[in-house]
Amino acid sequence: MQKTxxxxxxxxxxxxxxxxxxxxxxxxxxNTNADPDFGLLDQVHEYCRSFxxxxxxxxxxxYLFPALVQARPDLLPVISKLESEHERGxxxxxxxxxxxxxxxxxxxxxxxxYIQVAKTYRDFEWKHMATEEKxxxxxxxxxxxxxxxxxxxxxxxxxxxxxxGDKPQGNYENLLSQIVNRAPSPHGLGE
Length: 191
What we know:
Blueprint: H1 3-31, H2 38-71, H3 76-105, H4 107-143, H5 146-157, H6 175-182
Helix pairs in contact: 1-2, 1-4, 1-5, 2-3, 2-4, 2-5, 2-6, 3-4
């Protein structure tokens, strides 16, 4: 398996862990009268915005997808759809941030709105990752020439996930442990 494919799949698994925690917290918020943990929600939003939209998606759009279209022009429609989804994801995350701001203003009044917007974002990310995992990565692995993989491996290796990586970055150094420690059981280690 190519290093780039391994990196992308690892990043997808890491995002899935954050989303699974988020889904559990959303379910608890929906089914109990507990006050929302705004710190936890802020951290989940920050992870998605900082890693997905500053590191992960730009490298797919700028390097992997063009290399795959070069090798497999027939995949252009699905790749174009994924690139559009990367843009749509930013819009959905903006909407999620706005819904969180409303939730902070009046938790009781705006909880339903936040949960609705959060579920839309969650479902969007799940579907998007599934398309990449099932339709794009297997074709990339089979179709991209070895010399191009070397270049892609260099590009995809030049950053570290700010939460999960070997060298977590600055203010993200403890973000995962904070998310896990804040999230209530069974989604995390919190109370």
